[in-house]
Amino acid sequence: MNLLESVSVPCPYCGQTMDLEIDCAAGNQQYTEDCPVCCKPVTIVVAIASNGTPSVEARPEDS
After folding, report:
1. 26's torsion region: left (phi>0), alpha (psi -120 to 50) or beta?
2. What InterPro entries does this protein's entry cite (predicted)?
3. Strand 29-34 to 41-48 pairing
4. What is the pLDDT of residues 24-56, one digit of tens each?
5. What does the pLDDT read at residue 9?
6. 33 CB-near residues (< 8 Å, 6+ apart)
7. Torsion angles phi and psi, residue 62, rounded to 5
8. What pLDDT is attached to residue 29?
């Protein structure tokens, strides 16, 4: 199991790919990161499965 996983998710505003490094050892997470293309704030929601695999969703900050 890798502790850091590279994932790509689309920005919910402009659709461009955001490349993220997820720390799987930190468990489930929620944080805000600005899109590198349109600079809008995106809420990143991370759920870590029991096998250590992350599921990552990018949501508009206002939802």
Report:
1. alpha
2. UCP037225, zinc_ribbon_bacterial
3. antiparallel
4. 999 999 999 999 999 999 999 999 998 888 999
5. 97
6. 18, 20, 41, 42, 44
7. -85, 10
8. 95
